[in-house]
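Students often ask why inverse folding is considered easier than folding. One informal answer: many sequences map to the same fold, so there is more than one right answer. In these notes we will look at a single instance of the problem. The structure comes first.
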């Protein structure tokens, strides 16, 4: 597929509202720690759990659980993000990073946005997809639905929709009767990138009704299984894994 050369922009994703009170602690939400040091915290996000609140008083998010265990996270800016370095879609599970101070947060976000943080996922898709491949369709907000993204398949569409560059690499790990387990890797990442890219190939994620999945599933079959990055303070290679749930 021909790459369209366009300037990268940061992922919009699920944006926090500016201002307001700090995140409300919620110790009732389970919190599984995958990695911890004085500067970084990696936790295992459950499927269906938002990363952070959007409104004052909201308490059923991962950030609320993090603040309950680590109260100092509530004082980091931007408001309501509790030091969140990057995001996962609500229905995606797996490893996600929080910084524990403002300087580390700035450096870690620069690594993520600069493509120096490798993000590896496991995905189950409908149909049989063999070998490995590379998808580089630019991605834009869907012109008719605020809930969806859309791929631009030619330069005219990319310009019309102000699409962002996006690159997704995949490798088939296991073929089943009507489903394929994939290893998927992205670096920068845009909202719904893996979901919309694989759907554009005709292989939507199992359970992803928004992007055309037809088979019934108990969850969205996308899991952030591994993050690899230079530590934002020491520069040493850091690899953090989350056990596969499927």
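Output (designed amino acids):
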């Amino acid at each position: 597929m021909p790459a369209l050369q366009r300037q990268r922009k940061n992922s919009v994703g699920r944006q926090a509202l500016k201002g307001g009170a700090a995140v409300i602690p919620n110790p009732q939400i389970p919190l599984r720690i995958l990695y911890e040091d004085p500067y970084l915290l990696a936790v295992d996000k459950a499927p269906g759990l938002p990363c952070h609140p959007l409104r004052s008083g909201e308490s059923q998010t991962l950030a609320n659980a993090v603040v309950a265990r680590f109260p100092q996270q509530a004082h980091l800016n931007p408001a309501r993000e509790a030091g969140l370095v990057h995001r996962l879609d609500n229905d995606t599970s797996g490893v996600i990073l929080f910084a524990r101070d403002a300087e580390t947060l700035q450096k870690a976000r620069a690594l993520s946005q600069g493509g120096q943080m490798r993000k590896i996922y496991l995905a189950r898709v409908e149909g049989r997809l063999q070998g490995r491949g590379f998808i580089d369709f630019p991605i834009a907000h869907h012109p008719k639905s605020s809930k969806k993204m859309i791929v631009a398949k030619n330069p005219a569409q990319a310009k019309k929709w102000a699409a962002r560059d996006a690159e997704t690499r995949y490798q088939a790990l296991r073929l089943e009767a009507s489903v394929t387990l994939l290893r998927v890797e992205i670096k920068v990442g845009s909202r719904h990138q893996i979901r919309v890219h694989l759907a554009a190939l005709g292989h939507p994620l199992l359970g992803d009704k928004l992007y055309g999945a037809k088979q019934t599933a108990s969850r969205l079959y996308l899991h952030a299984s591994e993050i690899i990055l230079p530590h934002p303070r020491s520069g040493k290679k850091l690899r953090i894994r989350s056990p596969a749930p499927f």
